[in-house]
Amino acid sequence: MPIDYAAFGYAAAVAGGGILGYVKTKSIPSLAAGILFGTILSYGAYQTSQNPRDCGVLLGGGLVLGGMMGYRYYNTGKIMPAGLIAILSAIMIVRTAIRGITMPMKTE
């Protein structure tokens, strides 16, 4: 199976956003959340690269992160970073779900 570049890019954007949040505002929660979710999403991207139907971790991580950031966007109205991550998460959730449903089963 080919590498799931979009999922790895999403994971890198989340981790990079956490690091950027720490650098700009010294926000330890931003750093911790970015690294934690970036790691979870990276593992999910690895799994979907091995088998596109094995998308539970990537979907779960995207749903939790998207829900949290969507809630933050709803409360603050700020597009950066909450709105952007909520939108990216929604795109990745739909993409991963469609990809997981339409890909053939992996035979070993």
TrEMBL record:
The chain crosses the membrane at residues 5-22, 28-46, 55-73, 79-98. It holds the Pfam family Tmemb_14. Its main location: membrane. Keywords: Membrane, Transmembrane, Transmembrane helix. It is found in: Membrane. PANTHER family: TRANSMEMBRANE PROTEIN 14 HOMOLOG, TRANSMEMBRANE PROTEIN 14, 15. This is Transmembrane protein 14C. It comes from Microctonus hyperodae.
